[in-house]
Amino acid sequence: MNTVVAGAVRTASRYRWTVCALLFFATVINYMDRQILGLLAPMLQHDIGWTQVQYGRIVIAFSAFYAIGLLCFGRIVDWLGTRISYALAMFVWSIAAMLHAAVGSVMGFAMVRALLGIGEGGNFPAAIKTTAEWFPRRERALATGIFNSGANIGAVFAPALIPALAVAFGWRSAFVMVGAIGLVWLVVWFVMYRQPDGRAHDDEIADEGDETNAADAAAHAKAGAPGFKELIKKRETWAFIVGKFLTDPVWWFYLFWLPKWLNESRGMDMQHIGLPLVVIYAITTIGSIGGGWVSSALLRAGWTVNAARKTAMLICACAVLPIAFVSQAENLWVAVAIVGLAAAAHQGWSANLFTTASDLFPRRAVGAVVGIGGMAGSIGGVLFSEVIGQVLQRTGHYWVLFAIGASAYLIAFAIMHMLTPKMKPAKLAA
């Protein structure tokens, strides 16, 4: 390797962690904007007077249009590249978040949640593709776990800040303040982010033994993004779809309904609801980074991609199981610990699940595959949100919902293993 290329490689090595930091902060903002509705739901329910089913349908509006956003941005990211597409997504969802302050009806909230879903659909296709562009395979799950932990940090900051803002300045001000943070990130993104230098990045990957990605980089210049028709025929795509469809709704249940669960089942008001949620999502951060670290460590130890990813995912799937019994926990902090463990396990699962997209597909297809799988997860979220609303409206009990969440991961793992028993990369047309 000549001196110029070696210098470029060292620069890329350092810079890729700056890129990871940008993805992390974008995901923090993404989840603060997403979670604010759930945190303010008790206050908004009092002011607007919606029923459990109506609130469930507002959640469905977000979920349905998030599915559309994922599918569209999955293709946009592969077409336009990560720099422009990520900026577009951030702009749309930040404006949508601020527009919540301008509405005051169930229909109005459904409309702005739909726009928020469209914009937020760009976050993960862009972030996963950026990770695939900047990180070699053995670091990818760790990098994904780090930026994906932004979801947990956002979920920690949100209950710590948003209820206080709403009590002090009103719920409309809370939406405006939180939404505006995304516009600040947008400026930083345009100033700091650049597309990877293909030569330096590929040499770096080759030096680190990731020959598959080095070869893919050469092919990327000659082949365009594959079409949805080609991708949907692949068993590898369906493995990712199943994983997202069965487990994403569980995470959304935690995100949108835990504040209501604490309010209704534990009698906690807006001024006291923040601390349990902060503890839950602080625990979750450990799971996100830890889940990515486990598979990355196993790869460094010489395990195959198949064994490393699946071992990490199986550990996470088993760690979720205790949440089936959370409704029987009389002590609040025991219940918080159980939910925290399950949420942490989900994020560890998610870090590895996202990484399988770049394990199984070349970089030119990663955005589209993540978009397709994300859309499936959103459809699952729509269906589960309706189930949640109906169950709570008719029974008022959460235990059935927690039991569903407990079983989803092992079922998803079993189906994914049947579809990709050896996790060999999909063969796409040149």
From TrEMBL:
Protein localization: Membrane
Q: Name one Pfam family in it.
A: MFS_1
Main location as per UniProt:
membrane
Q: Where is the Major facilitator superfamily (MFS) profile domain?
A: 19-424
Topology with regard to the membrane?
Multi-pass membrane protein
One GO cellular component term noted in the UniProt record for this chain? membrane
Q: Which GO terms describe its molecular function?
A: hexuronate transmembrane transporter activity
Which of UniProt's keywords are assigned here? Answer: Membrane, Transmembrane, Transmembrane helix
Q: Where are the transmembrane segments?
A: 15-33, 54-77, 83-103, 146-168, 174-193, 238-258, 278-299, 311-327, 333-354, 366-384, 396-419
Q: What name does the UniProt record give this protein?
A: Major facilitator transporter
Q: Which organism is it from?
A: Caballeronia calidae
